[in-house]
Amino acid sequence: MAEFISKFPILTVIYLMPLLAVISLLFINEKNHKAIKITTLLFTTISFLLSIILFLSYDFQKGGLQFVERYNWIPSIGVNYFMGVNGINVTLVLLTGIIIVTGVLASWDVNVRPKEFFMLLLTLVTGVFGVFMSYNLFLFFLFYEIAVLPMYLLIGIWGTGDKEYSAMKLTLYLLVGSAFILAGILGLYFATGLYTFDFDILEKFNYSRNFQIIFFPILFLGFGVLAALWPFHTWSPDGHASAPTAVSMLHAGVLMKLGAYGCLIIAVYLLPEGAKFWLPFVALLTIVNIVYGALGAFAQKDLKYIVAYSSVSHMGIVLLGIAAQNSTALSGSVFQMFSHGVMTGLFFGLVGMVYGRTHTRIINDMSGLAKKMPALAVFFIMTGLCSLGLPGLSGFVAEVLVFIGSFKTYPVITIICVTGIVFTAYYVLRVLQIIFYGKYDEKFEHLTDANKIEFAALFILMFFIIIFGIYPFYVMKVIHSAVLPIAQKLLMP
Amino acid sequence: MLTLLHFIILSIVLFFIGIFGVLTRRNAIGILMSLELIFNAVNINMVAFSKFLTPQEIYGEIFTIFIITVAAAESVLGLAIILAIYRSRQKIYADEMNIMKW
Amino acid sequence: MDKIFLIGFLIPSLPFLAFFIIVAFTKRFKMISALISITAIFISFILSIMIVLFQIKNPAGYLKYDIPWLYIGNLKMNIGIIINSLTAIMLLVVTTVSLLVQIYSIGYMKGDEGFSKFFAFISLFSFSMLGIVIADNLMQLYIFWELVGLCSYLLIGFWYHKPEAADAAKKAFVVTRFGDFGFLIGILIISYLAGTFDILDIENFIKSGNISEKMLLLVVILLFCGAIGKSGQFPLHVWLPDAMEGPTPVSALIHAATMVAAGVFMVARLFPIFLSSPDAMLFVAYLGAFTALFSATIALTQDDIKRVLAYSTLSQLGYMMLALGSGGYVAGMFHLYTHAFFKALLFLCAGSVIHAIHSNNIWQMGGLHKKMPITSITFFIAALAISGIYPLSGFFSKDEILLSVLHSGNKLLYYSALFTAFLTAFYMFRLYFVTFSGQGKEHAHIHESPAVMTVPLIILSVFSIFSGFIGLPDKEFSIHKFLFLDHPEKGHFDFKVAMTSNIIAGLGILFAYLVYGLKVVNADMLRKKAGIIYTILKNKYYIDEIYLFFIRKIYYTLTEAIKWFDRHIVDGAVNLVAFLCRWAGGKLKLTITGKVQNYAMYIVIGVIIVILVLYVYQPDVMNIFAEVK
Question: Into how many domains does chain B fold?
Fold first, then answer.
């Protein structure tokens, strides 16, 4: 089995599956909604299962890049087909697999032009999978753009509310980020003088200190926009609020991680000197992210805005972990990417389901819903508990690791950030109380609980939150194997 | 004795007459004609340089023939467009053809 | 693995198993769920007795076993178990009370639609609480600490459709979170300094003296913050009275006997750490004494039977803190142990009354003694016990506390403790006389609760009477020989102190009898005489109002300000950029006239500019003209 897996081009297959699904969808009559959805689900499930296999068969004892696929593409300018995964990648690929399958399940009731919807969604996922696997920066950027662009149409066409504005804002914002990233990548490309985009060559090169100090912020901000680094986060609430459920799930669940991943793997890992120079400032920004995000969430009235601000707050923890520069915090940070991805996927999925029933997202218009939809309430409560860092759920492990690690580097900043857990608890419980507890209103008489498909989606997500919360040992080992080289590189004088 | 400079001066004069025509004529046909002048200025240059600098080669002359051919084809296109506009608007004043702006 | 460890792991695991089975399978079958839950806790109870018997053989010894939970790099987190006398005694308390409360709940919760859910939550709670008890490292302690908080949240909000219950649940969680915030930071600091989470290793580290006194004080106070939150010490006590919105068995189990005592237990568990910082100990003592007095005064005026008991719990927890802060390790734990029984009993009696009357207001009760004799008598016993009347259990533990305070030499604390004892006796018997004695109101249908509820009451009252005898000094079964820090103590008995406390308690009872029993003194007149003091007490010193002011006025304003800032300043900047682009486009588009000749003009101008620029900056280019010549 191991022999077979090592020969099998599993990475290519994983990211090609959604693309294959797009091609298959071309041949399906657009009126046949059921066939469209089942085809989509089928192909994404294959990707999902393969990503589980990939995760489990990654050898963390050995560490490093595995399942490498490397072919020349345009060698004269150093553009090659170079795919591989390390411990961070496998975790994030798994996350993507989880989110896309559940996202497809959660958008089962999309009946407006489903064919185009799913085609765009699948294209987006292809891009995301690709980014998490490619180790050639050209390829990386290519996939990155594939992942970012379909969002515009998805929000603009299937969104709600002020969708054109949000779609435009989000896309333009992210494209500005892309411009920075492209500039940074080209900087790396020319700085080595080797004219290659291959990651393994770029990482060995010693960039001059001045170069690092100039180019680190360019790359970090470019990716930071996507990771909702304050003050470049405002695309997130508007974008998430307008996006359809599955898109919110993918966006908050995976795309934001893509930003953090870029920050870590490209900005910090390739430019450690620049990182050491700039990261203390980033740590200051993360205070704002965490505390301000949590306080901002409290004042919001719209469920999606609340969740979006909570994402800003939680992504702050990811960035704090990156800023802390030691292996404990970095492991926590990567784990938080995973944990928050699943958690926020759940959140947006649940919000979508509640909205689909009550047709309102304003929290004060709802009350006592637990009576009519107990299953949704249980899932919502557990997700909320995960987000406020309750032990036994994955969020706790991630947060504690980040705090333990960052305490060594920035004690005062960490203490301020820990106040975030109190504020988070307050707004999460307030939302739960308002919408699920309290007096049950007669106007919700016709509401139903989660159906089987929705339940399946929620169950898959919750399963991972609980399993990784109770038994984080395995996943932490996988992550740690990849984080260690980064931490060591940062430790070097 | 005719030198290269004379030809260049001729082509410069032709060229600027052409530019002036393009910029100032209201009638689209006039513009087209001025364009031809610009082409001819270039052609004269081509032939003259070829004659004086590389007398053994005839690249300049060959190129000029190409340019004349292409220019003819272009004029045909241009006239066709102008004709089409004339049919729809009964006018061919260039400064009134501005529906392509924002 | 040693058999004793297996037992140690089984004790918390069984209730968890019960929780899992109920949630996954038997949710629909109410009685089966209850039976599963009770069986699990019953086995845990038996196993706890085995642990106690094991520990009695060698009270000074301890056993420790770790399972790796998360090892990455040089960070080690374990799920561990430590068995020593402290663990043993606490296991016994938790399993006993939990078992009795669960049996009682069969009667109390009968007919509730969330019957199975209730037992599932209670099992989850038992699991978490027992997890705290066996924890041998701070991280595990924190994990279970949060889990009991969750259970408390779920159970307070059990009747979530009641807005008050939902509010109280949220309040409880958020307020204790404040304490946990300090606790977590304390854990972070000390584990960073000591390089480990293991409690014994941290103790050794502190003994080695590699930590400055100020830092130690800071750490200990931060750790104590956790206890302030969970054990409801001032100023984070506000959640506990509101928590009485939960079902009464929950109040008895969680908010009287076990979870709120977790703070006290934590201080006891980390006692060597606390001891190493005398300033911090003094802080603990003063805060405990203040809380005890403070909540006792509030309890004097409350009308809700459960709220009176809640304030009484706060007061008693303050007592325990006072004992620990004065160095009375045994005294504090001993009082925790006796208090668990009589306070659980008081709550269950209250539950029994509420079950019959369907009201919490004591003024709607009265004359219940004849209709509910068992409840009345057991309540009476518990009230005597909490007042510290000889020879009931409360007497011994309270005596122990008074002695340790006296030994610490702080007269102020001693007298405040005595005064608190007087108030305790007074409000307990106020409660008793108003509720049970006198003329009954028109409640014809009232009758005694079923046996499933009264039997636990009787068992608990037996405990309330006799459990104190282990406090007798110089006996074989004396607690001083079982629970100690370094070496067994002899235990003391000071006749003077015992007499004083008994007389004071007696006075309190007598006074209550005169006012509410015989009604010789008019209660209304007292109320008028007290005037403003009464109003302040009745409104609980306006602490809730002050907090509400902070939350409503300051916190809400702050969050609104941030919302505004985000919308208008941060996002405004983004929109400003967009606006600038649009504005610039609006201006520049005027150059796009749609006229071919204008465009040609631009080209010509452009070419001229290029030539000029070249001419100015690179005149060499112009040499091509020279070459032509």
Answer: 1
